[in-house]
From TrEMBL:
<dbReference type="GO" id="GO:0005524">
    <property type="term" value="F:ATP binding"/>
</dbReference>
<dbReference type="InterPro" id="IPR020546">
    <property type="entry name" value="ATP_synth_F1_dsu/esu_N"/>
</dbReference>
<dbReference type="InterPro" id="IPR036771">
    <property type="entry name" value="ATPsynth_dsu/esu_N"/>
</dbReference>
<keyword id="KW-0406">Ion transport</keyword>
<keyword id="KW-0813">Transport</keyword>
<keyword id="KW-0139">CF(1)</keyword>
<keyword id="KW-0066">ATP synthesis</keyword>
<keyword id="KW-0472">Membrane</keyword>
<keyword id="KW-0375">Hydrogen ion transport</keyword>
<comment type="function">
    <text>Produces ATP from ADP in the presence of a proton gradient across the membrane.</text>
</comment>
<feature type="domain" description="ATP synthase F1 complex delta/epsilon subunit N-terminal">
    <location>
        <begin position="5"/>
        <end position="84"/>
    </location>
</feature>
<dbReference type="Pfam" id="PF02823">
    <property type="entry name" value="ATP-synt_DE_N"/>
</dbReference>
<comment type="subunit">
    <text>F-type ATPases have 2 components, CF(1) - the catalytic core - and CF(0) - the membrane proton channel. CF(1) has five subunits: alpha(3), beta(3), gamma(1), delta(1), epsilon(1). CF(0) has three main subunits: a, b and c.</text>
</comment>
<comment type="similarity">
    <text>Belongs to the ATPase epsilon chain family.</text>
</comment>
<dbReference type="GO" id="GO:0005886">
    <property type="term" value="C:plasma membrane"/>
</dbReference>
<dbReference type="GO" id="GO:0046933">
    <property type="term" value="F:proton-transporting ATP synthase activity, rotational mechanism"/>
</dbReference>
<dbReference type="GO" id="GO:0045259">
    <property type="term" value="C:proton-transporting ATP synthase complex"/>
</dbReference>
C-alpha cells in the first residue's frame, strides 16, 4: 500500500509525524486532499481551518489550525501552522468563555474610545 510521510507542526510543538494514507487541509484556495504520488505543491492554510490526517495505523487525526502553509514534496507532506490544536484538546466551554471575555473587553474599549472622542469634541 502506498503511503505518505506526514507531519503536522505548529510554531510551539510537533503535533504528529508518521505514515499516512491521505491528508486533507483547508487552504485559501479551497479544501485539498493529498494522496501518495501527489505533485509538489505549496498552499496557504485557511485561518480557522481544519487539517485531517488518516494514519496507516490508528484513528483519524483532526486538528484546528490558524494560518500557515502546507507543502508537498515527493511523498512527504508538511503542515506548518501558526497555531494548531487537536480537536480532542478543545474545551468548548472554555473557548466560549474566552471569546465572551474578549467580546466584553472589546465592547468596553470601544465605549471608552467613544467617550474620549466626545470629551475631546466638547473641549474644542
Amino acid at each position: 500500500m502506498a503511503e505518505l510521510t506526514a507531519q503536522l507542526v505548529s510554531v510551539d510543538r510537533l503535533l504528529w509525524k508518521g505514515p499516512a494514507s491521505i491528508v486533507t487541509a483547508q487552504t485559501t484556495e479551497g479544501e485539498i486532499g493529498i494522496l501518495p504520488g501527489h505533485e509538489p505543491i505549496l498552499g496557504q492554510l485557511k485561518d480557522n481551518g481544519v487539517v485531517t490526517i488518516r494514519p496507516i495505523d490508528g484513528e483519524r487525526i483532526v486538528a484546528a489550525v490558524q494560518g500557515g502553509f502546507l507543502s508537498v514534496q515527493g511523498d512527504k507532506v508538511t503542515i506548518l501552522a501558526d497555531y494548531a490544536i487537536f480537536a480532542h484538546e478543545v474545551n468548548r466551554d472554555e473557548a466560549q468563555a474566552e471569546l465572551q471575555n474578549i467580546d466584553d473587553a472589546l465592547a468596553k474599549s470601544r465605549a471608552e474610545a467613544e467617550l474620549a472622542a466626545v470629551r475631546r469634541s466638547e473641549s474644542r
